[in-house]
Design brief:
This protein has about 230 residues and is of the alpha/beta class. The chain is built from 7 helices and 10 strands. One of its GO terms (molecular function) is oxidoreductase activity.
């Protein structure tokens, strides 16, 4: 895997790095260079399947996958979950036709400039430190999933109980106590240049645990498809 890293999330106009992953949805490897010169790509870089928000982001990507494919855009969901654990999860929670890959070492997060935020008691230096006082003041609104808007910690606990997801040793090996890798989605053109992005690192932390709106993503996809 690529070991390079950048000091900020990649922005539109930046060239995406090549990263090689273990495929989850099939055997073998997946490289970002496989798509260059062939098709645009929406890549989602998620914490792992132990994260209830990430499980929902992956499902949302799968729901948009058919519409994106109609525009000639491929989708790739990358999770930090070790490959065998991820394959077991998707065996019982199948997402047909969604290409997925495992990156337990977080090489793609580093290569795309997604930081790891450290939780502190009350010190915030975004996007590297986030005080729990700020976390408790945030509100996540997921109609149909949460009974009321909740702070991210309470929302995560509620969704974990709802999903009955069992944390295993494989999940624990990628979890860092007191820290959380930030996630993002990047739309690359067929030459591998970023044309659109949505990351938790933006908006001073207000994007934490949120996903881009399907309307925003599809509007960006329409522009990339016509380039």
């Amino acid at each position: 895997m690529s070991r390079s890293s950048v000091d900020r999330p990649l922005q539109p106009g930046d060239r995406a790095p090549n990263v090689v992953f273990d495929a989850i949805s099939r055997e073998g490897k997946i490289a970002l260079n496989d798509f260059r010169g062939r098709s645009p790509l929406l890549i989602g870089l998620f914490r792992g399947l132990h994260c209830p928000f990430c499980r929902r982001h992956v499902s949302a990507m799968a729901q948009l996958n058919p519409a994106l494919k109609e525009k000639g855009i491929e989708c790739l969901a990358v999770v930090k979950t070790p490959v065998e654990r991820a394959r077991l999860y998707f065996r019982y929670h199948p997402l047909p036709d969604l290409l997925s890959a495992s990156d337990p070492e977080g090489a793609s997060h580093r290569a795309f400039g997604l930081p790891i935020v450290e939780f502190t008691e009350n010190e915030t230096e975004w996007p590297h430190k986030l005080g729990m006082d700020a976390v408790m003041a945030m509100r996540i609104d997921l109609p149909g999933e949460l009974p009321v808007p909740m702070n991210p910690a309470a929302a995560g606990d509620f969704l974990e109980k709802k999903d009955w997801y069992e944390i295993t040793a494989a999940d624990r090996q990628i979890m860092i106590a007191g820290h959380m890798p930030l996630i993002g989605e990047f739309l690359l053109d067929r030459e591998g240049t970023v044309r659109w992005s949505f990351t938790e690192a933006e908006e001073e932390g207000q994007n934490i645990c949120r996903a881009p709106s399907p309307e925003e993503l599809m509007a960006a996809a329409s522009q990339v498809a016509h380039q």
